[in-house]
Design goal:
CATH architecture of the largest domain: 3-Layer(aba) Sandwich
Oligomer: single chain
Strand order of the largest sheet: 2-1-3-4-5
Low-confidence stretches: none
Bound molecules: 5-O-phosphono-beta-D-ribofuranose
Shape: globular
CATH class of the largest domain: Alpha Beta
Number of strands: 5
CATH topology of the largest domain: Rossmann fold
Radius of gyration: 18 Å
Number of helices: 7
């Protein structure tokens, strides 16, 4: 069992936590140790830089960073480490997250950030797990099981809709 954090989850504000907790939940399900921290690229740049150094020297291998609006956190994290960085655009109040998405995805050549969909912290967690599975066979096995279960769930749903019809299926689902 690994005990030191392998993944660091960062976010620009505690208002991002409702979204970002979905990444944490994936790591809990896979029993992968992670750390979680609120730090801003704009408000706490020095602390952010120190934190990246500290967590890297403690063994963190992947950074996940979520931010909204002028969402510079993932890009700044990527500028401070050569570890993979996964960015999560957080849905913003004025532009629905398009500002966050473009701020994160349009990185300059040389400093990439792997960007997931708006608010899709779950996929960020799963992508991190996919990267970790290159190194850890136990994580790879769990990811294969996860995918197999997902496949079974879709097939079961499909069969149920065929059996009882879509209207009854929706009635039961919404009750
Ligand atoms: C970004 O601005 C944060 O990542 C957050 O998504 C957004 C709003 O921040 P607060 O107004 O909650 O501090 O820095």
């Amino acid at each position: 069992m690994k005990s030191k954090a392998l993944v660091s989850i960062l976010m620009g504000s505690d208002s991002d936590l409702e979204v970002m907790k979905e990444a944490a939940k994936v790591f809990e399900e896979f029993e992968i140790p992670y750390s979680l921290c609120v730090l801003s690229a704009h408000r706490t740049p020095e602390r952010l830089s120190e934190y990246i150094k500290e967590t890297e020297s403690n063994g963190v291998q992947i950074f996940i960073a979520g931010a909204g609006g002028a969402a510079h956190l993932p890009g700044v994290v990527a500028s401070l480490t050569i570890k993979p960085v996964i960015g999560i655009p957080i849905k913003s109040s004025f532009l629905d997250g398009l500002d966050s998405l473009l701020s994160i995805v349009q990185m300059p050549k040389g400093i990439p950030v792997a960007t997931v969909g708006v608010n899709n912290a779950k996929n960020a967690g799963l992508l991190a797990i996919s990267i970790l599975s290159l190194k850890y066979p136990d994580i790879s096995d769990k990811l294969k099981e996860y995918r197999a279960k997902m496949k079974e769930d879709v097939i079961r749903t499909s069969e149920e809709i065929i059996k009882i019809g879509y209207a009854e299926y929706l009635r039961r689902k919404n009750n």
